[in-house]
Design the sequence.
């Protein structure tokens, strides 16, 4: 899938916000409007990140490309708002203060050498010893990490020691992401229009 059009981006951002609002009030997932057949119906992996006044407020994603993109975004927005174990659930009164960011992921590719990794382009997954950690591409670039630090931090995210990526029993994968957010587009008004 190529980059999403501005209309598709706006649709997904509005859907994410409406998902938080509706599901937070106890509505069922099936009650959310879904788009007609479009590229948004193609199965894709995605993450939804929430920021409040520039600080992380929640981030959860789904790595499997086993459901339509719009359904993944709606579900992950709800999960990021209410089930990220690092944060208290979002209060609906906070919704106007949240900025929504969506990362649509490409399928992961195995990494044979650290030379294949490009900070700012690639996200990383480290798997091994029954654990898995993932960091999105924008994490490394926003923190000014080099490749080695990015690998070490992804190992820490997996709950592994920083050198785990060097062991043959630990697998490293890279992926790219099409990232867009309300900061990039016009933020909707608090009433959702």
Sequence:
């Amino acid at each position: 899938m190529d980059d999403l059009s501005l209309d598709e981006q706006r649709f997904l951002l509005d859907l994410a916000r409406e998902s938080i609002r509706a599901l937070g009030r106890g509505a069922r997932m099936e009650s959310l409007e879904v788009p007609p057949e479009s590229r948004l119906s193609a199965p894709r992996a995605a993450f939804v990140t929430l920021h409040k006044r520039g600080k992380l407020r929640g981030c959860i994603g789904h790595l499997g490309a086993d459901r339509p993109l719009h359904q993944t975004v709606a579900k992950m927005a709800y999960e990021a708002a209410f089930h990220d174990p690092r944060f208290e659930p979002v209060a609906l009164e906070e919704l106007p203060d949240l900025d929504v960011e969506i990362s649509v992921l490409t399928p992961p590719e195995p990494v044979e050498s650290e030379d294949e990794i490009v900070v700012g382009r690639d996200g990383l997954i480290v798997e091994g010893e029954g654990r898995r950690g993932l960091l999105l591409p924008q994490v490394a670039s926003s923190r000014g990490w080099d490749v080695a630090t990015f690998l070490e931090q992804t190992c820490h995210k997996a709950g592994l020691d920083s050198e785990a990526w060097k062991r043959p029993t630990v697998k490293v994968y890279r992926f790219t992401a099409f990232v867009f957010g309300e900061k990039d587009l016009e933020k909707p008004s608090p009433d959702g229009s």
